[in-house]
Amino acid sequence: MTVLLTRTIKDSDNLAKQLESVGINIYIEPMFNMEYLDYDLNSVELSSSQAVIFTSKNALNAIRNTIQKFAHLKFFVIGNVTAKMAKKLKLNNIYVANNSAKSLVDLILKEITVKEGKLLYFCGELITLDFKKELEKHGYSVQKFCVYKAVPSKDLSKELKYKIINNQIKVMLLYSHNTAEIFLDLIKKNDMLKFLSGINLLVISKKVKLLVEGYNWKSISIFDIDQQEKIIEKIKNYYEAS
Fold first, then answer.
1. 38 plus 27 within the same structural domain
2. Which residue has the higher pLDDT, 127 or 41?
3. Does position 241 have pLDDT exceeding 90, yes or no?
4. Torsion of CA 167, 172, 176, 177, to 10 degrees
5. In terms of residue numbers, what domain contains 67?
6. Is pLDDT of 231 > 90?
């Protein structure tokens, strides 16, 4: 049995090592490469700002070289993974929402007021929810910066095609809606939809589940990215049943 991880090698490393330690084979193939974009630090209205919004660790990582310029502000992030990175960068006043954009909006509305100052929003090119538009509905002033983009893979590797066609991939993890779209597009491009029926699919959200559930998977389950032990236990159960 082989587990397919679709994040970068760096992001997949911890989970991969834990699964390999119990005898489970891992194959890592990212569905996109991350490209960081320049932004004009001088254009940031820092003196009139009260908080910074990061919806992913990719946005935080994109500006890590200038992050200390914002260290005196409040930070609103989604998920413990991004929060841990923020702490490693020696940031304080970190407010953490559960793994959804709506929960972060609700947290911001609860914790800070419009009168306290502007919000700085760092994000990627593809976004599930535009925090600038959403928060401006509530009267906040938001300055938005696009600091990274995901460049999709043009094709699946020959090795991964072989593994899927020969029913070697038994479990697959999808960590984003974008990743799921790219994978399905590449599967269709190679006329490989009929080879998905042996794969137990783990997805990060209900939205991703809705995207993929029209295809012939063996099973689909939603996982919590902050509960890696439960993810490992789920995969071990598949392994023992295979």
1. no
2. 41
3. no
4. 40
5. 34-150
6. yes
Phi, psi of 108 (to 5 degrees): -65, -45
Q: What pTM was computed for the model? A: 0.78
Could you tell me which of 157, 200, 207 has the C-alpha nearest to residue 181? 207
Q: Is there a single domain that holds both residue 145 and residue 198?
A: no
Q: What are phi and psi of 38, to 5 degrees?
A: -70, 150
- Phi, psi (5° rounding) for residue 77? -135, 160
E strand or H helix that includes residue 17: helix 9-20
State the Cα–Cα distance between residues 242 and 239, nearest whole angstrom.
5
- 161 and 217 housed in the same domain: yes
194 shares a domain with 127: no
Q: CA 37 → CA 34, 146, 148, 149, distances in Å?
A: 10, 7, 5, 7
